[in-house]
Every structure is written in C-alpha cells, then in structure tokens.
Design brief:
about 110 residues, Yope Regulator, Chain: A, 6-stranded antiparallel sheet, 3 helices
C-alpha cells in the first residue's frame, strides 16, 4: 500500500506554515524532516507516524487514538501511529504535526 498523497499534501501545507522542512521517501511512506530529524511520516499503512517525546508516550496513548508504532515486530520508542480517522480534520492533523515538529526540534537540540 502506498502512502496517502492527499494526507501528505495536507502535512506539507501545515509544516510549511511553521518551519522549513525536507521531504524524503522512507519506510514506504513520505517523511517530513525538520532540523534534519524526522517529525512525521505519511505512512504506507495509512495515517501518520509521529515523533514524540518518549516521556509523553503513555499520556498520548491514554488520551488519544494513538497506537504504539510497530514495524516488523518491533515497537519504536518515541514514535506513535495515528490512524487516518484521527487526522481527518485540519485541527486534529495540525495538533499531531505540531507534536512531531516540537519533538524533532528537541531531538536535534540534544544531538548537538
């Protein structure tokens, strides 16, 4: 399954409002990198992969429709999968894109 091009276009529009970003095909989807770190990915599984602060993972899992990000039997710490139904509205998508941008910028700052 290919990633949702319409969802990728919506992400592109929102990311462009905040910061310069780079796009790169990854994991069968389209990744949006901010500060040279992946922020969000339009996933080939549908929906989004979103980078998060790992310390906030449990809270997001309890209070949103997010699921742990798993690929090939491995759970990826600091990443969540957001099903397409949870990013249908601009408001919902904007929230998750902002979470991903903030986490990518924070991760880049730590790496320096």
């Amino acid at each position: 399954m290919a990633y949702d091009a319409e969802l990728a276009a919506r992400v592109r529009e929102l990311i462009g409002e905040h910061t310069p970003a780079r796009e790169q095909p990854m994991f069968g989807g389209l990744a949006f990198l901010v500060a040279n770190r992946m922020a969000v990915v339009a996933s080939n599984r549908g929906g989004l992969m979103v980078r998060i602060d790992p310390a906030e993972s449990e809270q997001f899992l309890k209070t949103t429709g997010a699921q742990p990000m798993e690929m090939k039997g491995r759970t990826y710490r600091g990443w969540l999968h957001i099903d397409g139904e949870h990013v249908r509205t601009r408001r919902a998508l904007k929230k998750w894109v902002a979470v991903g941008i903030d986490a990518a910028i924070a991760r880049a700052a730590v790496a320096r």
